[in-house]
Amino acid sequence: MKNITIIIPSYNEEKNVPLFYQEVKKHLNIPGYRFNLLFVDDGSKDNTFAEIKKCAANDPLVRYLRFSRNFGKEAAMHAGLEYSKDEDAIIIIDCDLQQPPSLIPEMISYYESGYKIVYTKGKTRKGEPKLRTFFANRFYRLYNRHTEMPLDNGAKDFQLLDKQVIAAFLQIKDNYRFVKGIFSWVGYPRKCIEYDFIPRMHGKSTWSFKSLFKYAFNGMNQFSTLLMLLPVAMLIGVMACLIGDILLFIFDIFTLAQFLLGLNMVLLGLLLGVSIYGIFYLLYQLRRQVLNRPIYLIQESSEDNPVEKNLDIH
Question: Is the pLDDT of residue 39 over 90?
Answer without folding.
Answer: yes
